[in-house]
Write a structure and sequence with these properties.
Helices cover 71% and strands 4% of the residues. It is mainly alpha-helical and 106 residues long. Strands 1-2 form a two-stranded antiparallel sheet. A hairpin with a 2-residue loop joins strand 1 and strand 2.
């Protein structure tokens, strides 16, 4: 199980991610976001802005992977955590499609 501080950080990250999800729906707003995020590869995912949605997903993947390293983890919980990893990757892929639909060049 994740420590309380880690869960608080996850909640805050996903609150930011949901804001990014709203902005990516508005092509005009998201073009501005694309212009203010550096072009350096550290700030891009598949050539698209690595915004708060991507940061939240990658941070939470790290939290889950760390939890999976915990010795003696219950097999049911382990399976659930592995499924959450898959779900986060799927969510991130769907978000990349939303970024592309906003008219950003990949």
């Amino acid at each position: 199980m994740l420590p309380l501080n880690s869960l608080t950080q996850a909640i805050q990250s996903f609150q930011d991610a949901f804001l990014a999800l709203q902005v990516v729906e508005d092509k005009t707003l998201y073009h501005v976001a694309d212009k203010v995020i550096p072009r350096h590869k550290d700030y891009r995912v598949s050539g698209l802005p690595k915004d708060s949605f991507h940061i939240a997903c990658s941070s939470h993947k790290t939290r889950i992977k760390n939890s999976l390293r915990t010795p003696g983890i219950d097999p049911i919980e382990k399976a659930l955590l592995k499924q959450r990893l898959v779900n986060l990757s799927t969510a991130q892929s769907a978000y990349i499609e939303k970024q592309k639909n906003a008219g950003l060049p990949a």
